[in-house]
Amino acid sequence: MPELPEIEIIKNIISPYLKGYNINYSIVRNKKLKYLIPKEIININNQKIINIKRRGRYIIFLLQNNSIIVHLGMTGNLLIIKKYKKILKNDHIDLIINNNIILRYSDIRKFGFWIWSDKNYKKNKFLNKLGPEPLNNKFNSTYLYQITQIKKIPIKVLLMMNEIVVGIGNIYSNESLFISKILPYRKSNTLTFIEIDILVKNIKHILYISIKNGGTSICNYIDPYGKKGNFSKFLFVYGRNNKLCKICKTKIFKMIHRNRSTFFCSICQI
Ligand SMILES: [Zn+2]
Fold first, then answer.
1. Which domain holds residue 114?
2. I need a surface site. Which of 21, 105, 199, 211 has the fewest CB within 10 A?
3. What percent of the chain has pLDDT above 70?
C-alpha cells in the first residue's frame, strides 16, 4: 500500500501537468472500485484544476467549485500518459486534460476510490477526522508522548492509526521503530519521553529520505512516469525476515500482529 512518501511523490509529479489546466472529460471503464464512481466524475466536462493537494494518503484535485478526492487503496497507480499507450485490463479511469496528456488510474485489486466533494474537502467525512501530518510541526514529541501515555496499546499499532498521525503505514512504522531501537509490540505507555522524542525525529527523517529516493516499491508501486522507487534498498527490517540485521547480523523476525506483518530485530530493539 502506498504510504505518505509515495503519495507525496505522485502529487509532486502530476501537479505541473494538471494545475491550471482543464479536465476536458473522463473515460470511466469500470464504475465499481471500492465505491461506485460518482456520476459527477463520470460526466465531468471542461473543469479547471485549480490545485493538487495531499492530505495523509489522499490526493485532492481542487476544481473551481468542487473537488475530487482520490485514495489509491492497496494497488492504485496514477500515470501521466503523453502518447498513445495500450489500455490494460486494470486501467479504470482516464482524465483527458486540455494539454494533450491523460491522467490514467489503474488498480489491480480495486480497493482504491474516487469521491466527489465540495470545495471544502477538509470537511469531507473521509478527511475530517485525520490526525496531523507527520512532517508538520503539530506532530511533535509532546503531542505523541501525551497520546502514548493515554492509549496503552502497542506502539506500532498506534503509529498506524490515522486519527493520531496520517500516512505512516506498515513499511514506515516498522522501519522507524527499528531505527529508534523500540520493539513494535511494546505498550505505548512504557515508552519514555526520550524514546518518543527519538522516534518522532526518526519518523520525520525516514519519510523525508524516502521521498528523496522515490519511495518504496513493495507490491506494485510505480510513480506517474512508471518508475519504481529506490527506497527499498535502504530498508532495515521491512520484508527482510530471516535475512541478517544490517547492524548486529542476527536474523530479522517476522510476526503477524493484528493482521499486519511486523518485522524486528530482537537484539537491536528493546
Ligand atoms: Zn540487529
1. 4-123
2. 21
3. 100
